[in-house]
Amino acid sequence: MSYNNYRCVLAYIGGNMKKYLKIFGIVFVTTAAVYSAFKVIKLVKKYSLCPVLCGLSKLGASGADVIEISKNGTKFLSNADENGVDAFKEHLDSIGYSFIGQFGNSNLYEKNGLEVIVKRTKLFNKYYLYEIFNEKYFADKDN
Predict the structure, then answer these.
(1) What is the residue-wise DSSP string for the chain?
(2) Distance separating alpha carbons of residues 129 and 88, to the nearest angstrom
(3) Do 41 and 67 belong together in one domain?
(4) Is pTM, for the whole model, over 0.70?
(5) Is residue 71 part of a domain?
(6) pLDDT digits (tens, 9 = 90+) for 103-127
């Protein structure tokens, strides 16, 4: 085979390689976009993202340590540092809840015989979202 024949073969392979790489790139970008969209939809459904984002803006603007983001007093936001965690514990103490124990990222509190579980979730590696659940919440979920 002569040098010109090798050039033709390499040109043919190179042309097909560009085509395959282009197809692979399109498939990769499409898959990443669809995956990202599903993750955002999952976050929106799981955390009711609109109140959380509004709460994050209030938390940053007001400089407060704890912000209530639900109308019924079951969701709160704080900074993900010791000051934010301590401020949330102080907030619960101020409304009459006493700390019983910790179970992973959840804490158990008691007030007048009613026990509640406070679940702590880290958001964006900068904030904590606290969700308060009581026995009635779990009884409603079972039905």
Answers:
(1) --HHHHHHHHHHHHHHHHHHHHHHHHHHHHHHHHHHHHHHHHHHHHHTHHHHHHHHHHHHHH--SEEE-STTS-EEEEESSHHHHHHHHHHHHHTT-EEEEEETTEEEEEETTEEEEEEEEEETTTEEEEEEEEHHHHHHHH-
(2) 10
(3) no
(4) no
(5) yes
(6) 877 889 988 888 889 998 888 888 8
